[in-house]
Amino acid sequence: MTITTLSSRELNQDVGRAKKAARLGPVFITDRGKPAHVLLSIEEYQRLTGQRRNIAEALAMPEAADIDFEPERMQITERPVDLS
């Protein structure tokens, strides 16, 4: 994991660089030389916060092409209705 430090000015001048760096590890953003913010990839954020993706989000991801998903078919049976 690579840790990158950028000043607020550097971030404003080259957001693309910060986004690329966030793929490799956290990006610390400083204000007046002191760490003020951290930029993370969404995957790293979810890992740290323990957030889980729902099945629709998981299947929409590019790596989902390798997932075998065959849900069991439900059996729906009719029942008489008592309206008395």
Question: Can you walk me through this structure?
Answer:
With 84 residues, this protein is α+β, with helices and mostly antiparallel strands. It has a domain at 4-57: YefM-like fold (3-Layer(aba) Sandwich), CATH 3.40.1620. The protein has four helices and three strands. A three-stranded mixed sheet has the order 1-2-3. The longest helix is centred in the first third of the chain and has 10 residues, at 15-24. It is elongated, with a radius of gyration of 23 Å. The termini are far apart. 2% of the residues are buried.
Explain briefly what this protein structure is:
With 84 residues, the protein is α+β, with helices and mostly antiparallel strands. It has helices at residues 8-13, 15-24, 42-49, 55-60, and strands spanning 4-7, 27-31, 34-39. It comes from Isoalcanivorax pacificus W11-5.
The coarse overall form would be elongated
Report how far the terminal alpha carbons are from each other.
68 Å
* Average pLDDT rating: 86
Decide which structural class fits the backbone: alpha+beta
Share of helical residues: 25-40%
CATH homologous superfamily designation of one domain = YefM-like domain
CATH architecture of one domain: 3-Layer(aba) Sandwich
Order of helices and strands: EHHEEHH
- Summed up, the helix count is 4
